[in-house]
Amino acid sequence: MHFVRFEESMWVAYDKNPFTRPIVWETPRTPDSARAIEVAFEHFNLAAPETQSLIGLFKSQLVFLSHDDWICSMRLDEDGQERPHARHFPVPHFWQSLSHRMVATVTAKGDVVIAKSDELAIVKRGLSV
Question: Does residue 86 lie within any of the structural domains?
Fold first, then answer.
């Protein structure tokens, strides 16, 4: 996963998965924006090596699939980040396959929708903590 900052408050995240698209978001400007950017990069650098593919945005969270097949999220705002990311639930191993890539998205309500071949799974409120 790669993170790029452009202009003063715009970010983009992208990965190598051809089934995901880049995710773009804006961070609010604060009096301590330089420190917020520094903290954000620290969290991104910790989460990036654990990321298999991006899923989407939910509220102020970047949602991704980790290399150990867990749906995870990372807060994008600078407030209250005690750890770089949260693990929500595992994706069963039989949904992971080299021949058929899993495609996932997150809804505005925090439901995680996962599609693979001709199957669809919906985890209602999968990002609830």
Answer: yes
